[in-house]
Structures are given as C-alpha cells and as structure tokens.
Amino acid sequence: MSGETILIVEDEESIQELIRVNLVREGYRTELASRGEDALKAAKASMPDAVLLDLMLPGLDGLEVCRIMKADPVLRSIPVVMVTAKGEESDIVAGLELGADDYITKPFSAKVLLARVRAVLRRGRQKQDEGAAIKSHDIVIHPGRHEVTIAGSPVELTLTEFKILQFLAGRPGWVFTRYQIVDAVRGEEYAVTERSVDVQIVGLRKKLGAAGRYIETVRGVGYRFME
Ligand code: CA
Predict the structure, then answer these.
(1) 8-state DSSP, 149
(2) How far apart are CA 125 and CA 118, in angstroms?
(3) Which of 115, 149, 192, 221 is most enclosed, with most CB atoms within 10 A?
(4) Taking 90 as the threshold, does the pLDDT of residue 132 lie above it?
C-alpha cells in the first residue's frame, strides 16, 4: 500500500468512478474533480503525487489546466498524465509541449492505467544525474565523452545524433514531440528543424543496428525510448 494521492480530473462520472476504484484497490488515495477550475483548487489544496487529467472538460479544459499547473512554481513538479480520446494527437502534442508528463488514450484497461501511474510516480522520485552514464538495454551512453557503446562495441554518431539519443534514452518511456527534441539539441551543429528530426532518427536507428528498435515512433506524437 503506497498511500500516494492521485487527483482524478474527469467529468464523466462512470469513468471517474472506474479510475477511482482501480486506484483505491492498489492502495492509492484519490481526490476527485470534474471541472478544470476545481482541479486547480484541489491540486493546490492537497498537492497530489500525480494528476490524471481528462482533456475534454467543461469550463477550463485539460490543456488550460496543464498550462496553468506547469507555469506555477509550486504545482509544476506534480506529474500530469493526460487522459485523451483516440484521434486527439494534436492535443497530446500540445499537452506534452506544455509540460504534461505522459498520456493515456481512452478506452484503457486498469492494467495500463496503473502502469502509467506507477511510471510517473517512479520518474518523479528519480533524480537526474546529468553527468552519469546512461545505461539502457545493452546501450551505454557516456555524456561527458560523447561515446556510445552497444554490447561493449563503440558506435560512431554525429553530435546531433548523440544528443538526440542521450535525450531520449535519458528518460526511457517518456514520449517527446519533435519540437521538444529540437529544443533539447538545437544549436549544436546546425539549426535542427522538426522535420529534420525524422531524418536524424532514421540515421540514428541505422547506426544503432538492432538496437535501433529501442527508439519507437509514436504515431502522430513523436518518439520514445523503449523502457
Ligand atoms: Ca471529458
């Protein structure tokens, strides 16, 4: 029993109840809000460990709630998982760029819901050590030395490819939009554009060989390094 508090922001009562029951069964405490304004009040009052945020809300919508939370010096540290309907890729992209931490698409199973919640809570606890080597699957990335090895063998990457790999692999399981990737690597060799990210990823995957599959394309949204 973890006792962590999850704020559920959802205006459809049946979905709100379904999420609540599943979280309570796992030992989480829950707070409920069905309007954006109430979600912000509840977040400030109870400082939950994570927020499950439906995007289609009456009044202030989910994206606005996310924007306000991520611009707030106190609330910004609370992980936000957007809850979206299928086909809302543009909202997902907008939400990620506003600082949302992950998303889940309706309809979802209890298993997927709990996995996402556990993942954001775990990430929230992890502290990033920027200088440390990143080890994921059989890839080791040495930030200081700009070196990458796969199963012990060095791989030659351009600086931009290296930066993209470091950025994605440093946060496995997180989905990043092309803009977020550009923002993370910009200004190193030349101006990276959103479109050129796709080209860089193609080149990067080719150089990584079989390990290239760890970089997953998230259709309509961006890229993710396999957890
Ligand atoms: Ca809704």
Answers:
(1) E
(2) 11
(3) 192
(4) no
Spacing, Cα 171 to ligand 1 middle (Å) = 29
Q: How far is the CA of 46 from the centre of ligand 1 (A)?
A: 22
Give yes or no for a contact between 6 and 48, defined as CB atoms under 8 angstroms apart.
yes
Residue 109 C-alpha to ligand 1 middle, in angstroms? 17
Which residues make up the environment of ion ligand 1, defined by Cβ < 5 Å? 11, 54, 56
From edge to edge, which strands make up the β-sheet containing 29-33?
A: 29-33, 5-9, 50-54, 80-85, 102-106
Helices then strands, counting H and E runs in the chain, come out as 8, 12
The mean-pLDDT minimum among 18-22, 185-189, 215-219 falls in 185-189
**pLDDT tens, position by position, 137-153:** 999 999 888 899 999 99
**Banded pLDDT at 192 (limits 50, 70, 90):** confident
Angle between helices 159-169 and 194-208 (to 10 degrees): 90
Return the DSSP state at 152: T
